[in-house]
Fold this protein.
Amino acid sequence: MSSAPLSRAELAGALAPELLSPEAAAVLPVRGRKKAGVLVPLFASDEGMLSIVMTRRGDNLRRHAGELSFPGGRIDDDDADLTATALREAHEEIGLAPPSVELIGALPPTPTIATGYAVHPFVGLIDPGQEWVLSQREVASIHEFDVAELLAGYGRRRIKRRGIGFTTDTYAVDDQLVWGATARILGDLFARLKAAGLS
C-alpha cells in the first residue's frame, strides 16, 4: 500500500465495499456445532502502515492454547448476535472498548477442524496507539502486526499438532506463526485488501 497515511474514513471507504455484510455472512454454510465471533481489528499507523491486532492465547486454556488468534469466543446467551460476541470478547480479552471500534463488515465464517467451532469474523477499524489491557486468564500477549510483514511471511509449512504432522497455510513474523482457522481468515482478508488497493 502507499506510504501516505490513511485516515480511518479513507480506510473504511476503500475496504468496506469488499467485505460482506454481517447479515450476508451469517447465512453462509459453515461446519461447526458451536458458533463463535471474533474481531479482526485493523488500523493505519501514523507512518501509513496497515496493521492488524492479534492475541496469543494463554497456555493454560483447554482449546487452542498458545495459538495466535483474533480476540473472540463462543456466543453467550446474553449476546444479541455474533457481532456483539466479537465486541464483548475483544473488550474482555484486550480492553478494547466497543464504542472505539467501527465495524465495517464481515468475512466468510470458517470452521476450526479439531474443536468444531464455526468462527464468524467481523472487521473493525480502530485508532492507532491503543493501550491494551490483556486478560490474564485468557491472553498471553498482544501483537500488532504490519500487514506487509504478514504477507511477506506467507508459506505452506509442515507443522505438528498433538503428534500429527500436516502441511498448511501459515504466516510467520519473526518467531510468531499463524496457522489454522486464523490463517484462513487472514488469507480471505488479504484478498479483499488487495482488491481494495490496500496491499
